[in-house]
Sequence to fold (334 residues):
Amino acid sequence: AMPPGAMTGFNASQFGQLPPDAMAGFKSTQVGQMPPAAFAGFSPNQMAAMPASAMAGFKPTQVGQMPPAAMAGFSPEQLGQMPPTAFAGFKPDQIGAMPPAAFAAFDPNKMKQMPPTAMAGFSPEQIGQMPASAMAGFNQNQMKQLPPAAMAGFSSEQLGAMPPGAMTGFKADQFAQLPPDAMAGFKSTQVGQMPPTAFAGFSPDQMAAMPASAMAGFKPTQVGQMPPEAFGAFKSDQVGQMPPTAFAGFKSDQIGAMPPAAFTGFNQSQMKQMPASAMAGFSPEQIGQMPPTAMAGFNQNQMKQMSPEAMAGFKPDQIGAMPPGAMAGFNANQ
Fold:
């Protein structure tokens, strides 16, 4: 067996001529001594024949020199033995060439070392193979670089395992590609960290799948960015979990798109925060579904903005629950 020190003399052209069978003899101590430039000679067949135990010798500077084609030979066992520090050497074209099955070996420590620029190489198939626990290593800069198409690979378990801070890297085009099934993993602490602009990517199917408990993280600036059509999937239990402060972000076209049944989730504190301008979106069917207790949150400015048509939805017990001051907003047309 060659002494580790002898490996420092290797160059790329020599390495490229090594038969794949010879790779089985490599040890981690030998790999660690090889000059980074020599790794440019790696082939897929050589990579496939490298013992998993030898991978422990890899360094980020060596990884960075490997041709993308060689990455096609990676196995989960090999990737699992690579030290987390070596992951700092990966580039997007190298990541893109790796077989999805290899990603099953990712863990949080490896993920933490991945350069944000390398994230551009991820595919949905690769994301789909990663263990949920690995997602705990994600950070916001990595999230910013993830291609929107890759988001289609996320599961609810993976999404739920991501740290809230990573959510600050979300963008609207990425959010739009999340499968509705993945939405079940969202937590309120994660939602609260997402930039408002990301909410422009919300779809009705995603909204329908959002856990009611996650709604507690919504902020008015986030609500204000959501497309009206997404509101068509709101449910009463989701509305009921939204913090009153979030209601300050509602717009009339968003209100108008909500199904009447969702209004049974309204409460007095939420109603107090509703902008007067949003009241123009109310329909009689929506008014008719609101609990009388919610009416206690009405004020005269809100009442002034309600359409005459919406007034047809009021019931005696709702009117009876409204504060006297709200009545000052009534006009002859209403």
